[in-house]
Each structure stands twice: as structure tokens, then as C-alpha cells.
Amino acid sequence: MSDTSHDPKQGPVPSRRAFLRGAAATGAGLAAGGAAAQNAPDPLITQVQDWASGTGDGVDATPYGMPIEFESDVIRRNVEWLTADTISSINFTPIHALDGTITPQGCAFERHHSGAIELRKEDYRLMIHGLVDTPLVFTYADLERFPRVNKTFFLECAANTGMEWAGAQLNGAQFTHGMIHNMEYSGVSLRTLLDEAGLTSAGDFKDKWIYVEGADASSNGRSIPLEKALDDVMIAFKANGEALRKEHGYPVRLVVPGWEGNLWVKWLRRIEVTAQAIESREETSKYTDTLEDGTARKWTWVMDAKSVVTSPSPQAPITHGKGPLVVTGLAWSGRGAITGVDVTIDGGKTWQKARLAAAGQPMALTRFYLDIDWDGSEMFVQSRCHDDTGYVQPTKNQLRDVRGLNSVYHNNCIQTWWVKETGEAENVEVS
Ligand SMILES: Nc1nc2c(c(=O)[nH]1)N[C@H]1C(S)=C(S)[C@@H](COP(=O)(O)O)O[C@H]1N2
Ligand SMILES: [Mo]
After folding, report:
1. Ligand 2 centroid, distance to 178 Cα (angstroms)
2. For position 37, what pLDDT does the model report?
3. Does residue 70 lie within any of the structural domains?
4. Does residue 157 have its Cβ closer than 6 Å to ligand 1?
5. SS3 label, residue 414
6. Domain-embedded: residue 49
């Protein structure tokens, strides 16, 4: 690639012609991993291969398809010291190995407080009661008959990146940032169901709440301001086109766009309209942030704007040597849409504007790319996002100045990967 006029500061896409010229010049590129001499025949091209000399699997072989065996490392993983008990536990989405923005349910992270339960649609009931005109119980079949909506949102656990407050700790984007997924949900607006129950007896809803709980033993009860409930909260029964997986709340879960994952109650069974917040365990002893002076930040529902480079990263090292390199990652904001992402390869001294794969959508993941010509020297790669409220993702030190070091939740700081000359990457901090 030494013959291209590509200037990484401008961040253009290297032209296909320049790429092919570069490949021919080095005898590598598209040939077999660079090993083949320039004129030696490539058996993968010149010889008939096994897969072309017999027949493949019939259409009956996979009534429901699984990923091909060669992709068997694209899986949820946990951190052993963090997850000794798998019943009340967490695992992480392999974001370093995915592209685009939709997370397949099969590898989307899970968080359970008392295990994933099995609940048949026939046994499903949803009760809406409290300060409503008519308390109601819905079956699954009832829910299917209300006007439906389809929307894509990210769910981020408030504890995502929570292990990184004191210093760089977990070596991989899956572990530092993998408590997130992004799915297209189909279901009913909660407003539709609340209207069905009637809210005249709730009076002025500006100071009212709902309390939501699940059918699992933990129940994961949380209070949500009625104003948010009437705004964009969904009762979802499909994700990415198919039924919710058991581990994501089959048959029905709550979707609370932009707000912390703990509020997205799975196996949803009860919604009570209340005059006050309930102050449940999940919102007092958990999901509050302890500040330096010992006081607690409470009701920290919104997930602030955040981004991370998913490749290159510790689990996605550069294996092709110098030359054209796709730097890519994800950005999101619980306050609205991502408007821009900047990427630095020198630890924040100079920034380049990344290309958004598509315009940012409110409270959904945005994919970004930066196409560079890597000179083979070490890099300190970071991304920094902006949202449509004007918010800019902070550095770790800016966040520590305000929150101290006692926090677990809501760490949305800029992440640094040290990419070495070998292409391997490590989780580090730059000051
Ligand atoms: N009923 C119930 N809902 C729940 C939980 C739970 O344990 N029980 N865990 C919560 C937490 S802390 C998170 S981060 C999200 C995780 O959703 P997921 O497992 O689909 O990724 O579900 C939330 N909803
Ligand atoms: Mo969570």
C-alpha cells in the first residue's frame, strides 16, 4: 500500500484499485495468506475441492439453523472471578466478533437474578392494577390483538464497564463493554394497555409511578415514572423477528428505551400504577451509585452516550500486517441519537471523524468505521461519541473527578486499546 496517496487524516475509503495494486506488488493480499509465491498456482483455485465434487446438505438438515461450526468462537462468555454462581449471574455479548448493529439473540448477553425461567404462553398472565379505573389481566393471546409497534433499541446493563473504574482490567471488548445488546422488538406500547385500564383515577400523572415485576423468583421489581411509561415503553413479545428467547424473557418482556437494563423486566407479570416509588431492593441497595463522599446518586435511569472500538481490540487483533485497516466499533446514547464518532490512534492527540454506517437512530446502536492505512507502528486507539443533545463522551479521568472511585454503575468513559506492532491489543489507560 506504499504506493497509495491515501491520507489517513482525511479518513477516505482506500480505492479498490489501489488495494489490488498493493496486493499484486507484495504478492500477498488476495492470495493464500501471503504465503504463495506470485506465480505459483493456488490449489484453491486450480483444483476441484471436496465441497464442489459431492452434494451439500439437504434442506431438511437444519429446520432451525445454527451458525456454521467455523464460527463456534462467536459465543457469550463470562468472567470467572465475576461469575462464580451462574444462577445469579451475567455473561457477555461477543461484540468484538459482530458487525452491523443487530445482536442475534443466540449470543446476546444475559443477566439473571434467579435464573432464566420457562413460562409457557398459555400460562402467561399480565396484571395491570393500582391507580387505574379498571384493573385488568391480559393473556398472551389478548396482547397479540392490540395495535402493534416495531422498534430497535439497545439494552445496556448499568454495570457494563463497571469493573474498569479503578484501572484497566478486563482484556477484551466483550468483557469491558459486552453487557449490551440491540434488537428489533415487536409488541404493544405500554400506553395502549394503560389506556385500556384507564388512568383518570391516577389524576395528574406527572408525579405518579408504575411498579413493574417479573414472574421469576427474584421478581426484579422496579419503579418507573408514569411519564416515561406513557412515552415510549413497550411490552415486547418478539425480538429480531422471532419469539423472545427464554433467557431474554419469553414470552413477554418490558422494553424501556435508553434506560438501564435492570428496568427491562423479563417474564413481565405485573404493572401497578402507584402514587410513590416503591424503593425496592433493586433501586436502593443496588443500582444506585456511591459517590466519593459516601452519598448515593439515585434514580440514574438514563444510559449516557458511550462508544467502543470493537476491532482492532484484544480479542480481535490485526493479523494482516500493515496497510489498509478497518477500524470499527459501536456508539449509543440513552438520551437520543448518535450524531458523530471521533477516532484517535495516538491516544487522543489527534482525532479523525469516523464514518457512520447509517445515521444514528434514537436509543439504538450505531456502527462506525474508520478506514486507515496502518504504518505498522503501535497505536493507542480510542473512540469518542457525540449525541443529538450535544453531550460528548467523557474521558475516564473526567468521570472519576465527578464520581470518584466507589462507583460500579454508569461508567461511559472513553476506552483505550494499545495496539502493538505485532497487531495484538491490550486494555490500557492513557492519562
Ligand atoms: N424478571 C427479571 N427481569 C430482569 C432481570 C432478572 O433477573 N429478572 N435482570 C435485569 C437486568 S439487571 C438486566 S441488565 C437485563 C438483562 O436482559 P437480558 O438477559 O435479556 O440481556 O434484564 C433485566 N430484567
Ligand atoms: Mo443489569
Report:
1. 12
2. 58
3. no
4. yes
5. coil
6. no
C-alpha cell at 394: 467523557
Q: How many residues does the chain have?
A: 431
The CA 131 to ligand 1 mean position distance, Å, reads 26
Specify whether 255 is located in the same domain as 318.
no
Q: Which atom of ligand 1 is nearest to the CA of 214?
A: 1
Could you tell me the CATH number of the domain that includes residue 376?
2.60.40.650
Domain count, the chain: 2
State the cell numbers at 289. Answer: 451509585
Q: How far is the CA of 187 from the centre of ligand 1 (A)?
A: 18
Do 248 and 322 lie in a common domain? no
For residue 207, give the DSSP letter. Answer: G
> Using one digit for the tens of pLDDT, what is the confidence trace for 417-429?
999 999 999 999 9
Task: Pull the grid cell for residue 349.
Answer: 492527540
Q: Are residues 259 and 336 in the same domain?
A: no
CA 412-414-418 angle, 5° bins: 140
The last residue of a domain, from among 297, 327, 354: 297
pLDDT, tens only, 104-142: 999 999 999 999 999 999 999 999 999 999 999 999 999
Cβ–Cβ < 8 Å for 388, 336: yes
Residues 6+ apart with CB under 8 A from 308: 95, 173, 176, 177, 329, 330, 383, 415
For residue 84, the model assigns a pLDDT of 74
Atom of ligand 1 nearest to the CA of 158: 14
Statement to judge: residues 282 and 346 lie in one domain? no
312 lies in the same domain as 283 = no
**Ligand 1 atom closest to Cα of 213?**
1
Least confident of 36-45, 115-124, 367-376: 36-45
HSE-up of residue 158 (Cα within 13 Å, Cβ side): 19
Q: Are 312 and 288 within one domain?
A: no
Q: Does the bond joining 312 to the residue before it have cis omega, within 30 degrees of 0?
A: yes
Structural domain boundaries, residue 372: 306-428
Q: Give CA–CA dist 32/16, Å, rounded.
A: 19
Residue of minimum CA distance from atom 6 in ligand 1: 112
11-30 residue pLDDT tens: 444 454 455 444 444 444 44
Identify whether residues 359 and 258 lie together within a single domain.
no
Residues 353 and 288 in one domain: no
